[in-house]
Every structure is written in structure tokens, then in C-alpha cells.
Design a protein that fits this description.
By secondary structure, the protein is an all-beta fold. The protein contains one helix and 37 strands.
């Protein structure tokens, strides 16, 4: 076990000890900007624009508009384009989903909301991006049916699901009240004879995910996911009930590391029943920077058997347990420049369990 931190008492579960010294340079960010709100990257597509109303969508919150959305998407030419959705409440059958294609932009106007029709399914998605590339989703909102759900089992009723897709931008959208997650990012479904592909180069920017049942955002098997300037709050109903959960499924060859290179920057994560941010196994290279994590029902950040995690320049307070808790076989942890709960010394805001290695606690952490 190797731990480096300034002189002080660190919570080690049932044991406390004193250690000294720091030696880990600040890693480079996966993106260039360290300050200011980031714009979502442009994605390649054609110039064609279509309006979903021209394909029969009513937007009255009663008529099932799912088929109208799909006809409009299918009408885009090979080079893709933009599907514009005017203001209105569009009832969507999440068992069929609005299935986006490559090289397209789902553009929701202010006041445009996709509303899930109540169902009894364990697994259903309002919007699905699967095996596609160069996709953008922006504006308006997605509202789930958790209060009107007709079943009692399952946890995969998501608002927006990204599976095995690449170069995806999701921005300026509110997603709420889902039976499962607000947003779920992961690999495409396993099928015989087909390699399971993670999602790659996904940017989530300026979104709000609130009052969802399982997670605000799940990041599963993926490469290079950025979560910027967003809010994840009031998740409750089924475990883990985190604001953000980085938790890939098992069985990702060749090194069993399911999520790599995740940046969570300038986000507000609060009032979730579980952890603010959870990093749970098979994750490597998660960086949490300049975030505000407060009043969560578990830890501010909980890392379990995670590798190379950086927690830098965040503000944490009012979390039920420690602001940072590290468990399992985690290794390569840097905690630097954070402001922890003023109600306790900052060294008591961090708990590192036995079995964790290469923990670096910089001297510029503070409470207040």
C-alpha cells in the first residue's frame, strides 16, 4: 500500500494513520478548455431540414407521434440532415423508440417535449441512438413516465440511450421523470457473431437530468465521454440512485476495462439519494473537475475498484457520508485543490479503505 499526503489523519475505515509527502503531477485534460462553458462539437451532416409536423405529428400530448417521427427521420437523404420539432408535447411509445440515424440532428425547439406513453416494460427508451455516428440531440426536453409506470420491475426505462455509437453530441436539453436513467451511454447489444462495440467520443453539455429513478446519467462501456456544464439532481427510487454512475458491464475484451477517459467538468450534482458520482469497477481515467457536489444521500464521490481517478478543484459539502470514499482494489487516485465540507477537517472528508494503492492527497485541499 502506498499513500502520499500532507501530514494529517486520513480516515482508513477502522484504522487511522499519518502519512506525508505528495508526488503526482496534474494530468492533462482530455480537452483544451479549463474554464468557461464549452460548446458541443459540431457533427458532420447534410443541409436538409425537415419538420416533424409535416409528417403528421400532432404534439398534443395524446396522439401517439412515434411513427411520424420515424417517417421524418427515414425521409432524410443519405447525407443526413436536421429533424426540427416545434413546441408541443409529443407522445412517444418508448417500446418502439424514436430511433436516430447517422449524420442527423434531432433539434427540439424551446417548449418541445417528448413524453413517454405509460408502459409496463422493464426496458424501454424514448430516444435511441444505436450503431450510428455523427448524431446531435439538442433543445427542449424528454419526460418519462415513472409516476404513471404500469409495472413494478426493471430499471431500464431511459429517456435517451446511446449504444455503440460514435461522435454524439447531447446538449441544452432537460430529461426528467424516467423509470430508469435520464441518459444512458454504453455498448451495443450483444448478438451472436457481432463484436460488442463501446460508444466513443460522446459529449453531454448543458443538460439537466432530474427526478429520474435509477441514475441521472449512466456511463457504461465507452471511450472518451465528456460531461460538461450540466446538472444531475434528485435521483431516487432504485439503487444506486446516483447523479452520475460510471459503471460498465463486465466482459469487455481484451483488458476488461469498460469505460476509459471520462471527463466530468463544471457540473452540479446534488440531492441524489445515492452518491453524487459513483465510479464502479472496470473504469479507468475518470477525471472530476470544478464540480459542485452537495447534499447527496451517500458520498460526494464513491470510487470502487476504479483505476487512475482524478478529483481536482471541486466543491463538496452536506453529503451524508464522506465527500470522497475509495474502496475495493482502486489504484492511482489524485485528490487535489478541493474544498470539502466545512463542518469537519478535510482529512476526515476522505475515506480510503484497505486494498487501495497509489493514493495522492495534495496539500492544497481544504475545508470551507
Amino acid at each position: 500500500m502506498r499513500i502520499r499526503n500532507p501530514a494529517g489523519t486520513l480516515d482508513r475505515g477502522r484504522r487511522s494513520f499519518i502519512a506525508a509527502g505528495i508526488a503526482w503531477p496534474l494530468a492533462a485534460l482530455p480537452i483544451g478548455a479549463r474554464a468557461g462553458r464549452a460548446a458541443a462539437p459540431a457533427r458532420a451532416r447534410g443541409d436538409t431540414r425537415v419538420d416533424v409536423r409535416r409528417f403528421g405529428a400532432m404534439g398534443d400530448g395524446i396522439t401517439d407521434d412515434t411513427s411520424c417521427f420515424q417517417r421524418a427521420i427515414d425521409a432524410l437523404p443519405g447525407e443526413g440532415g436536421t429533424l426540427h420539432v416545434p413546441a408541443g408535447n409529443y407522445a412517444i411509445d418508448a417500446s418502439r423508440s424514436v430511433r436516430l440515424r447517422s449524420r442527423m440532428h434531432l433539434e427540439l425547439a424551446p417548449g418541445a417535449v417528448l413524453v413517454a406513453i405509460p408502459n409496463a416494460l422493464e426496458r424501454a427508451y424514448v430516444v435511441l441512438v444505436q450503431d450510428a455516428n455523427d448524431v446531435e440531440v439538442s433543445g427542449g426536453g424528454i419526460r418519462g413516465e415513472r409516476a404513471r409506470h404500469l409495472g413494478s420491475t426493471g430499471e431500464w426505462g431511459h429517456g435517451l440511450t446511446v449504444r455503440g455509437a460514435s461522435r454524439v453530441s447531447i446538449h441544452d436539453i432537460r430529461i426528467s421523470d424516467c423509470w430508469g436513467d435520464g441518459i444512458s451511454i454504453g455498448s451495443n447489444p450483444s448478438r451472436r457473431g457481432r463484436e460488442v462495440a463501446p460508444s466513443e467520443d460522446v459529449v453531454v453539455s448543458r443538460v439537466a437530468c432530474t427526478n429520474n429513478r435509477r441514475q441521472g446519467l449512466t456511463i457504461g462501456r465507452s471511450r472518451r465521454v465528456q460531461v460538461l456544464d450540466s446538472e444531475f439532481s434528485h435521483t431516487a427510487g432504485t439503487a444506486p440512485a446516483a447523479g452520475i454512475d460510471v459503471e460498465p458491464d463486465s466482459g469487455d475484451p481484451p483488458d476488461n476495462t469498460g469505460a476509459r477517459d471520462v471527463l466530468i467538468l463544471r457540473c452540479r450534482v446534488h440531492d441524489n439519494h445515492g452518491p453524487g458520482i459513483q465510479i464502479f469497477k472496470r473504469a479507468r481515467g475518470v477525471r472530476i473537475e470544478q464540480c459542485d457536489l452537495h447534499d447527496n444521500g451517500n458520498c460526494g464521490v464513491l470510487a470502487v475498484s476504479a483505476k487512475d481517478t482524478t478529483i481536482v478543484a471541486n466543491r463538496m459539502r452536506g453529503n451524508r457520508h464522506q465527500d470522497v470514499q475509495v474502496r475495493g482494489s482502486s489504484s492511482g487516485l489524485l485528490v487535489k485543490g478541493n474544498r470539502f465540507d466545512p463542518a469537519r477537517p478535510w482529512m476526515r472528508s476522505i475515506r480510503v479503505d484497505d486494498g487501495v494503492t497509489d493514493v495522492n492527497l495534495a496539500s492544497d485541499n481544504s475545508n470551507g
